Amino acid sequence: MELYNEGLASRAPAIRGLDRRHVSTKALARVLLLCLLTAACQSTPRVAAADTQAGTLPAAELPAPSPVATPRASPTPTVDELIYPYTVAGLRRHAFQHDKVQIVSVVAKTETYTRYSIRYASDGLNINGTMQIPASGRPPFPVIVMNHGYFNREEFHSGDGTDRAAEYLNRHGYLTLSSDYRSWGGSDIGPSIYYSGLAIDVVNLLGAVESISEADASRVGMWGHSMGGGVTMKVLMLQTAVRAAVLYSTVSADDSDVLGRWGLGCIGDILAGEHQLGCNSSDVVPLDLPPDLIKAYYGSSMDPSILRETSPIFHLEHVSVPIEINYGTKDGKTLAGTPPEWSRKLFEALQAAGKPAELFGYDGEFHSFNGDNWIAMMERSAHFFDQFVKKP
Q: How far is residue 373's CA from residue 1's CA, in Å, rounded to a whole number?
């Protein structure tokens, strides 16, 4: 294995559910036209020398963020006003819940952990998830909140996409929590535009950590894979208890990149949307949303100024924790993957913003790591969390 490293000083050292999202320009245009014309439209190996190559977007090309005022209400809401709640500024004004984590059942007991099915409230929705408590050690345990990547909902089971990494962290003395998010794993269905609903579900889970007697709510980290990396970056725009974050094969922190690769969210039946071309079912756009909002959603996708306001990469002044970024050098070869350039682009933007960050590229790895490379990535992540989360 070859490992490429940039950033802070380095330390010692096959997931199912492939994404079936596709982009079809003609199909997207037809859906857009339908929306505009009708008001009803409604997923300890050897370490080599550091990679000195720059990322695909020079840091200097990232414009400095500008203050965003809350749009004034008008008789006929503008696209900016309708999309504002889903922007970084709008999310920072969101009223989050502080509910309790309810244990639904004991799912499994092993020599490493006890796994529980959990439920909690988020924006009036019931959200399911998984909690794993280490079998050894003394509570309260430090906590890692784990954000899964995209899965087709028909194939998803609670804990998918995070269970392998959760067990590894359980062995290192961490209690792990994984939200299924709205619309996955039997959770209630609710809107999510530009990952905003998923981020809200994760922040509300963070707010419920203090209700878990075995958890130390003052020592919390976050881990996100693929789409979950995008969710993690949205969360890091907000004031939370998170002390450090690890990204693994993350989607871009620039929403225009995500739109360009996978398109907009599917309108209506989310399960049916996963089987149709030309829409990205990571976003959830129910039929009962106001038609004006659906039109604004489509309109915003073609407005670079609005996409700047929804994209974390243009608001890194809000990042207050160190971030570790891991990617495979062969990722992005299929549409389900995430191009390595996205990880490099975020790293360079973090550097330009003066934020602590590390970047590690694993030679020959695709979207989900295996074998020694996966162990190296998880061992590195565990040490990262030990340094920034586990210590009181």
A: 7
The residue assigned the tokens 């996100």 is 224
Task: Measure the CA–CA gap between 293 and 126, rounded to whole angstroms.
Answer: 24
* pLDDT of 44 strictly over 60: no
The span from the CA of 392 to the CA of 386, in Å, is: 10
Residue ranges with strand state E in the chain:
3-7, 102-109, 113-122, 125-134, 141-147, 175-179, 215-225, 242-248, 266-267, 284-285, 323-328, 357-362
Mean pLDDT within 171-200:
96
β-strands 215-225, 242-248: how paired? parallel
CATH code of residue 139: 3.40.50.1820
Domain range for 125: 3-390
| Residues 163/168/174/179 CA torsion (nearest 10 deg) | -20
Instruction: Say if strands 266-267 and 242-248 run parallel, antiparallel, or are unpaired.
Output: unpaired
Taking the C-alpha atoms of residue 175 and residue 247, their distance in angstroms, rounded to an integer, is 18
For 169-180, what is each residue's pLDDT tens digit? 999 999 999 999
Q: Over the stretch 329-363, which tens digit does the pLDDT of each residue have? A: 999 999 999 999 999 999 999 999 999 999 999 99
Domain count, the chain: 1
Burial (0-12, 13-18, 19+ Cβ within 10 Å), 12: exposed
Are 264 and 197 contacting, i.e. CB atoms less than 8 angstroms apart? no
Query: For residue 211, which amino acid is it?
Result: S
Q: If we measure between CA atoms, which residue out of 371, 391, 383, 386 comes closest to residue 46?
A: 371
Q: Report the range of poorest mean pLDDT among 19-23, 117-121, 230-234.
A: 19-23
Length of the chain: 392
Render 65-110 in DSSP notation, one character per residue: P---PPPPP-SS--HHHHHGGGSHHHHHT-------PEEEEEEEE-
Q: What is the DSSP letter of 387?
A: I
